Amino acid sequence: MAVQLYESHFVSLPSQTNVYNYTSFELGDGNHKVLVGSLQGKVTCFEYQAQQPIATDLPFSYIPTDAEIVAIDAFVRPPNGVLVGITLIKQDGMDRMQFLNVYGSHTDPKECFDWTRLVEDFQPCSLDFLPYHLTHAKLKGDMVFLLSGGDKKVHLYRLYPEDQLNVFREAENLAEFLPELCDCDLNTCIMRLDICELDGIRVTAFGCQDGFLCLTKVEATTNQVLQKWQSTQLDGPITSLKLFLENTTFATGTTEHLYKDQVDQPGKALLRKWKELHLVIGCAIELAVVYRSVMACGLNHPMPLPFSDQFDSVLSVTAADINWDNKNELLIGTYGQRVLVYQFQECDKVIGEDGSANLKEYCLLDKFELSYPVYCIDYVDLSGDGMKELTITSLCGIHVFQHDLDLAKEHCRRRLELLEEHCFPS
Asked: What is the number of structural domains in the chain?
């Protein structure tokens, strides 16, 4: 493939998984770990130890063998504490019970990370609705779990240390934390939710089962809703969405001007972040779509991703700089066993109906095929060598793709030469 990745490892899962059953987190020492839940109540951890890949089935407490894991998510409590949330459904005859199990709520985050203690330290939260997407966000200085449900609502779960029991439970007043989610009269449940905060402004995007899409801009300190956009143009369930920046956080300039904006114009670099926040949407029926410059334009400038509807439903979207040009490419995973890679490139001038001119468009840079439908795509440094791996969860396993080391060495050499030229000009 053009981006020069090769599949280095594959881990078979105990049973099939789904689009909500993947999460990754980074500990204080820089080690990344991946957790993947299987539908038949198993959780697999994939990590590197001493540069060797290790896959382990973790025996999380109170997950019955006949229970179905719906979603999994995790976040770090600095320096070494981890909270893991797992939603599950247990069928008992004609009765059905739903739970959110939270692991690690009583573990001291200052202690060394220990899987044995984590999997046994659990707190069950009974649910009276079907769970869907489980994610997390930092609100009012605290990390919280956000869970969308079949009751067409989003539920927020947080620690209550003031109870002296470190209890983890649902917040009674969602409007206190996310007012933008409280005045939405939804017809169906929320399938995906993403939250991003830039310079005190919180951007929240969510997509629903009927194709409804909502984007809001909120002043984070006062929780005042500044602006809201809604769209019903998508025909079919919104399977995935992601807020992303045009440039990576490593550098804001191009390769030829590495570090220039950060060194000479830090204020300009921050303004560029505001203009370059975009939203990519994956739909079960239609083309995947990118909404450009959502901080300024909301949902007014959609750009479809060509050919993204030709390999069955789009199930996963993410943004990652996989060709090391300091700009994020878009990776689209489909049920048709394909991963599509898109790049924002110069194109022939196209005049729109409103008279505007498009000088750039998203072009299909590359695509490659897997043996199973693609459910989740992530780009993290699992091996700890400073070079990220492309981690893909498919219907039956975890695929790890690594960069070609010779190309990485040559790229690193060019970067060092550019850095030397900038810092020590002749």
From this structure: 1
